[in-house]
Amino acid sequence: MSTARRLRTALVLVCGLAFAAGAAAQRAVSTVHSQAGPLRVVEVAKGLEFPWSLAFLPDGRMLVTERPGRMRVVAPDGTLSAALAGVPDVHARAQGGLLDVVLSPDFAESRLIYFSYAEPTTRGARTAVARAVLDAQGGKLEEVKRIFAQRDNPSGGHHWGSRLVFARDGSLFVTLGDRFNHRERAQDLDSHLGKVVRIAADGAVPADNPFVGRAGALAEIWSYGHRNVQGAALHPETGVLWTHEHGPQGGDEVNVTRAGRNYGWPVITYGREYVTGLRIGEGSERADVEAPLLQWTPSIAPSGMAFYTADALPAWRGSLFVGALRGSMLVRLSLDGEKVVGEERLLGELGHRIRDVRQGPDGFLYLLDETDGRILRLEPGN
């Protein structure tokens, strides 16, 4: 075994011991009931400000973004690092700021991370994606490079999208909101608003994207007709991208998000106008528009999404979990292939906005509690 590999192995062992020691000091804040039996809600860390995204490092630590523009490393015992240096300036207004973060598939060798953020521009701001080398020991990001930015940069502070998901082929899906006041652009292929895009790890356009070579269409676009996608994950068996998005006063959707497909917004939707309550668009179905697997009316304001594949909570294996902001809960969806066959609503008694949902390396579910600025862990309660 090489010296470098021995050092990495020792680091993992030390962090594993730290995790075991730190877990004893963490505080169970509640016991809740579920169809799988009682669950213990454990406070892993606190003191975060509007946490938005969580990623697990190979050594057991966590990387967390805070919307005001900070990124921190969280130790297994819940200790927060200082804000990492090197994060670019963000447009931290309304819903904008520092948003998603994911590790590169080759992170163990490259130390590369990818993150999305609201990038300030002369006209307003736009959703952008950057990559950087993480120096967690030194408390900084190095070699920061923006690899993608929306062509559109309107004013306003809402609907940034911003979830990042690596496909199995190494390409990167980026979800982009319609920026609220520009919803009609979600149907236009010469705009990045209201789209899911697919780029290579360096920002280049994959040659097999569905609109490559089509006149008047942006080659990065994977799918269109979206409102504000804030949950995205690959199906663990098929590798297909699943997303969910916010609807207005209803019409939140869960979708299987395939290449070149139209998901309807704002022409085909279950949503209604905020002020008048009138239906939006021309209806909820059309032959050339992909129907959602599930829609929520009234809206639960979904955010964060994860498939559960571990053994720590065996009754939940194969379920899809969705956090909810307005609904202040965690939703578990039972699946049969690409059909939703059951729904269970959890943690509603806590009354907290769940911003992100991730499966941890220990097999438990980890949640970002935006209301109290905490990382929570769900464990069996017996």
From TrEMBL:
It comes from the Bacteria. Pfam families: GSDH. Residues 48-377 form the Glucose/Sorbosone dehydrogenase domain. Residues 1-20 form the signal peptide. Keywords: Signal. PANTHER family: ALDOSE SUGAR DEHYDROGENASE YLII, HEDGEHOG-INTERACTING PROTEIN. This is PQQ-dependent sugar dehydrogenase. It comes from Pseudothauera nasutitermitis.
